[in-house]
Design brief:
Distance between the termini of chain B: 84 Å
CATH class of one domain in chain A: Mainly Beta
Structural class of chain B: alpha+beta
Number of helices of chain A: 2
Low-confidence stretches of chain B: 1-59
Shape of chain A: elongated
Number of domains of chain B: 2
Distance between the termini of chain A: 112 Å
CATH topology of one domain in chain A: Immunoglobulin-like
CATH architecture of one domain in chain A: Sandwich
Oligomer: heterodimer
Mean pLDDT of chain A: 81
Largest interface: A-B, 50 and 95 residues
Helix content of chain B: 10-25%
Helix content of chain A: 10-25%
Largest sheet of chain A: 5 strands, antiparallel
Strand content of chain A: 25-35%
Low-confidence stretches of chain A: 1-30
CATH superfamily of one domain in chain A: Immunoglobulins
Order of helices and strands of chain B: HEEEEEEEEEE
Order of helices and strands of chain A: HHEEEEEEEEEEE
Shape of chain B: globular
Number of strands of chain B: 10
Radius of gyration of chain A: 35 Å
Radius of gyration of chain B: 26 Å
């Protein structure tokens, strides 16, 4: 019994010395190991919704004697391009796309024929995300003599 | 009776001699035992298959676990061609703090699966791990590439830490429209680089890797 105590104590002491060495900042921080990952090792993220419709969409005559119209709008967050739509029957009529891939916040039409025009704009993000069309612009009229009002 | 008993001085020498040997042997055994742990703890490298519950070679160091836990802040969501935050809960099952200094990422073409709910239980049609184009940011063509954290993360002994990795998910420009307003389970990390035995536990809630 007497002789057993020192051996146990010594063993414990030796272990503590070694553990103390382990806990010493120098050697411990010098080692790096690759730890495996359990629980699937995954994490979560989330994506945004479709881009908003552009706001403040307005159309203006380039000049009263011109048959071209300039459409402008406010920037949409994350938009990489914009598409411009045009209707010729009414503000609530059928709109068809007249320009895609506009990378600025304005676009000017080519020469327009006689008639009435309304425009809408939609934002695009990347290759496949397209937002809703904006509200229609005010009516623009190209007269028979090519003037714009 | 005295003939069967060693003299007191001799008995004392005998005990003392045995005791010294025992001390040396026991101390050596003790040191070697702990040293064995030391070897395991400081030289432990294990390669894991994606998503596996890897075990250490020695059993002295348990793998940490990383699990999805929350929805990223609304201010930093993914969009085509853009980056977004990633939130992870890191659990350290070891009885000592573990400081993570880097992560090992799967390939850049290993995409996240999309889900319609924050609990990541209902798959989002058309936004799968083959089409989402959502991956870990800065991942390369090589699986297991190492990416140092901006600041090391220390997870307490037997503790856990929820952390936001800022802008460490990326969505490809060709992501389908089906991936709008979707929750993602990022592909499994292949491992993390870590050290053990840190004295302090940090409380950082955000971190990142930037290359």
């Amino acid at each position: 019994m007497v002789s057993g105590r020192p051996s146990l104590a010594a063993a414990l002491c030796g272990a503590l010395v070694a553990i103390g060495w382990l806990a010493t900042p120098g050697p411990a921080t010098a080692s790096t190991w690759t730890v495996g990952v359990t629980g699937g090792g995954n994490a979560s993220s989330a994506s945004d919704a479709a881009p908003d419709a552009p706001s403040s969409v307005i159309s203006t005559c380039v000049s009263s004697s011109s048959n071209t119209v300039r459409i402008s709008w406010s920037t949409v967050q994350h938009a990489t391009a914009y598409s411009v739509y045009q209707a010729t029957s009414s503000a609530t009529g059928t709109y068809t796309v007249v320009k895609t891939g506009v990378t600025s916040t304005s676009w000017t039409t080519g020469s327009l024929g006689k008639g009435s025009y309304w425009f809408k704009v939609a934002a695009v993000v990347g290759a496949n995300w397209s937002g809703p069309q904006s509200a229609a612009t005010a009516q623009r009229v190209i007269s028979p003599n090519g003037n714009c009002t | 009776m005295s003939m069967h008993r060693a003299p007191a001085r001799r008995r004392a020498l005998h005990v003392g001699s045995w005791s010294r040997k025992a001390k040396i042997a026991s101390a050596t055994i003790g040191a070697l035992t702990a040293g064995g742990v030391a070897f395991a703890a400081t030289n432990w490298t294990v390669g894991l298959a994606t998503g596996s519950s890897g075990q250490s070679q020695s059993g002295a160091v348990s793998n940490i676990s990383i699990t999805a836990t929350a929805t990223p802040a609304a201010g930093n969501l993914l969009y085509p061609g853009g980056t977004g935050d990633v939130i992870a809960k890191i659990t350290n099952p070891n009885g000592f703090p573990v400081t993570i200094s880097a992560v090992n990422l799967p390939t850049a073409s290993t995409y996240a699966s999309g889900f319609s709910d924050a609990g990541l239980t209902t798959a989002q049609a058309g936004c799968t791990s083959t089409s989402s184009t959502v991956a870990w940011n800065f991942a390369t063509a090589t699986s297991g590439s190492t990416h140092p954290l901006t600041s090391p993360i220390t997870v307490a002994a037997n503790g856990n830490l929820t952390i936001t990795f800022t802008n460490d998910a990326i969505m490809g420009a060709s992501a389908p429209a089906a991936c709008q307003a979707t929750y993602f389970s990022l592909p499994s990390l292949t491992g993390v680089a870590a050290t053990g035995g840190a004295a302090a536990t940090t409380t950082a809630t955000t971190d990142s890797w930037t290359s």
